[in-house]
């Protein structure tokens, strides 16, 4: 791996985008609660939905019977859906009982679902009413996680966007890092920024409501997740300035992200090198060890998490893979443009989904690796294709230098598994 990888002569930022508006195969935005409730330690997520919503969350979280997580579902019964009950009165009662039993709750999110959207239950008005009732001890906010309104990772975007209007105002020149990260990764990032003399650094979401996260015209914010379009717009409306950069996946992406932040805060080249040279070297070594199985192999991305474009850039430029198609639920130039600049030209770039047409393109291309949602993985495996679950890339620590080798290994593992299975099948056939 070279010390510096220049951008390709022609990236994909100006590549015509294949826009599809058909049947989608993605999780709904409720899934984001699984990592958000772990991140915000004084928050509680109350989904106003059906038993199906409750089963989804229980299954996704793997909650044991004796656990008491910071999320629950206020079940809408048939009488609620039929308008026979006063749903707002029942919701108020449920919230009062919850807060009496859980005095540790400081932030309560009322999360809309498909059923609550269908019956037009005004959770925004409910949040305002309940905030007045339970202030100042508890702040009540509302966002939609409905599959009608949101796809997989957009639940986090909707949640963070709902928090922006109530953030305190500040005139301080501060960095705001936006997007939920595992605590260990967040600590690594903060250590790098602190070593460069950048601070104070504020976080959205913060681990508690008492954190000094504020926003104003002197705030500069950097995103660590590529699916935060609504949050980006909300912060811009508050006067904050976005630091555009590739996302911090792998050596190159992490270095480019840190470089953009360092430039915004006038960090010298010497300081930047002193802080990043050692972790960069570790990242390059780890990627090289993990990516032997990936070099020269083709990869096809179905749209799922909105991580697809920066991950395709990482696999192409740092692991030697050949992207065939890179699909994403949504593509926004302000967020994805810097990664598209670095993605070598060649792959089809698609936005949205018409799943039958995309399956046809995938099966015709016969890629060595297909990154897709859970619902498509088994059918594609039955067709002889190696797959990687997109959801694993959201739940696994993959950002910044120390996780770069693990990120490459996640993709390599799928190809190694296929090779083992093929060898086993050949041995059986030979007997």
**CATH topology title of the largest domain:** Rossmann fold
DSSP helical segment count: 17
**Count of the domains:** 3
| Low-pLDDT windows of residues | none
What's the count of strands?
A: 14
Q: What is the name of the CATH superfamily of the largest domain?
A: Nitrogenase molybdenum iron protein domain
Overall pLDDT: 90
CATH class of the largest domain: Alpha Beta
The rough form would be described as: globular
User: How does CATH name the architecture of the largest domain?
Assistant: 3-Layer(aba) Sandwich
CA radius of gyration is 23 Å
The major β-sheet equals:
6 strands, parallel
Widest sheet: strand order? 1-12-11-10-13-14
Which band does the percent of strand residues land in? Answer: 15-25%
Distance from first to last alpha carbon:
43 Å
Range of helix content: 40-55%
Describe this structure in words.
The chain is α/β, with parallel strands linked by helices and 431 residues long. The protein has three domains: 17-24 and 281-430, 3-Layer(aba) Sandwich (Rossmann fold); 29-150, Nitrogenase molybdenum iron protein domain (Rossmann fold, 3-Layer(aba) Sandwich); 175-277, 3-Layer(aba) Sandwich (Rossmann fold). It is built from 17 helices and 14 strands. A six-stranded parallel β-sheet has the order 1-12-11-10-13-14, with helices on both faces. α7 (154-163) packs parallel to α9 (229-237), α10 (250-264) crosses α12 (308-318) and α12 (308-318) runs parallel beside α13 (333-342). The protein is globular, with a radius of gyration of 23 Å. The chain starts with 16 loop residues before the first strand and ends with a helix. 46% of the residues are buried. This is Light-independent protochlorophyllide reductase subunit N. Protochlorophyllide reductase is composed of three subunits; BchL, BchN and BchB. Forms a heterotetramer of two BchB and two BchN subunits.
């Amino acid at each position: 791996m070279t010390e510096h990888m220049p951008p390709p002569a022609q990236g994909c930022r100006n590549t015509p985008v294949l826009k599809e508006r058909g049947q989608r195969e993605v999780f709904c935005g409720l899934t984001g609660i699984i990592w958000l409730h772990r991140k915000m330690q004084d928050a509680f997520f109350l989904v106003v939905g059906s038993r199906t919503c409750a089963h989804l969350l229980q299954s996704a979280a793997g909650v044991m019977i004796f656990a008491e997580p910071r999320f629950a579902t206020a079940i809408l019964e048939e009488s609620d859906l039929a308008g026979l009950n006063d749903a707002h009165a029942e919701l108020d009662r449920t919230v009062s009982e919850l807060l009496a039993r859980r005095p540790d709750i400081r932030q309560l999110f009322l999360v809309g679902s498909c059923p609550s959207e269908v019956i037009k239950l005004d959770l925004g008005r409910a949040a305002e009413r309940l905030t007045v009732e339970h202030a100042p001890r508890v702040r009540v906010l509302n966002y939609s996680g409905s599959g009608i309104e949101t796809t997989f990772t957009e639940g986090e975007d909707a949640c963070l966007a709902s928090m922006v209007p109530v953030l305190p105002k500040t005139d301080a020149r501060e960095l705001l890092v936006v997007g939920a990260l595992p605590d260990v990764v967040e600590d690594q990032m903060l250590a790098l920024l602190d070593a460069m003399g950048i601070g104070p650094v504020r976080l959205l979401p913060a681990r508690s409501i008492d954190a000094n996260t504020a926003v104003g015209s002197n705030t500069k914010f950097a995103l660590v997740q590529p699916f935060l379009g609504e949050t980006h717009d909300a912060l811009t409306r508050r006067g904050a300035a976005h630091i555009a950069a590739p996302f911090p996946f792998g050596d190159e992406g992490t270095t480019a992200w840190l470089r953009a932040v360092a430039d915004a805060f006038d960090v010298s080249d010497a300081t930047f090198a002193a802080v990043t040279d050692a972790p960069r070297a570790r990242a390059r070594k780890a990627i090289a060890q993990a990516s032997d199985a990936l070099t020269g192999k083709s990869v096809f991305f179905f749209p799922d998490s909105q991580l697809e474009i920066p991950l395709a850039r990482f696999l192409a430029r740092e692991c030697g893979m050949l992207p065939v198609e890179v699909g994403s639920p949504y593509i926004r130039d302000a967020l994805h443009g810097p990664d598209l600049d670095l993605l070598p030209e060649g792959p089809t770039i698609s936005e949205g989904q018409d799943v039958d047409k995309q399956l046809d393109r995938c099966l015709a291309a016969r890629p060595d690796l297909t990154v897709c949602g859970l619902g498509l993985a088994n059918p594609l495996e039955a067709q002889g294709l190696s797959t990687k679950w997109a959801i694993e890339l959201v739940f696994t620590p993959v950002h910044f230098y120390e996780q770069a080798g693990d990120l490459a290994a996640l993709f390599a593992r799928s190809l190694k598994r296929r090779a083992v299975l093929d060898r086993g099948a050949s041995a059986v056939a030979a007997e």
